[in-house]
Amino acid sequence: MYTLDDIDRQILKILEEDAKSGAKSIAGQLGLTKTPVYERIKRLEKEGFIKGYKAVLDTAKIERSITVFSFVSLDAQKGSLMDEFLEDVSKFNEVTECYVVGGEFDFLLKVTVKNLDAYYHFAKTRIASLPNIGAVKSAFVLNEAKKSQHFPLL
Length: 154
Description:
154 residues; elongated; Arc Repressor Mutant, subunit A; alpha+beta; 4-stranded antiparallel beta sheet; 39% helix; 2 domains
C-alpha cells in the first residue's frame, strides 16, 4: 500500500483548492520540476487517493434552495434492513449526503430541496413511505456559517 509523504500531501492540498491546477503550476509552487509532479498525480489517482475532479457549484446562483438535515431512526436495526434503507436513499436526488451514525438516530441525511413545501413532499412521499422507518426529525439550515469540502491534510 502506498503511503503519502509531505510532497504528496502538498500536491493533494493544491489540487483540493483548485482541481484545474496543472502539473507545471504545482511544480512551480513546490519548487519541483513538472515530470515528477505529473507522475505523483497519476500515482495518487491510480492508488485511489484522488477519486475524481468536480466543479463546486454556487447553488444560490442556480436556484433557490434550502438544506435540511434529517435524522432518521429505523424500527429495527438489522443489517439487511439498514442496507435496504441505504440502497433506497441512494436513489433520491434530494439526498446529497448520507451517514450511518451512532446514538439516538441511525442515519443523518443532508437533503437539498427547492423550498419547505418540497421538503414536506419529500419527507412524506419518499422517506416516511420507506419500510422500517421509526422516526424522522429535521433541522433546517438558516445560514451556512462554514462549508468546506477540504480534508485537513497538513
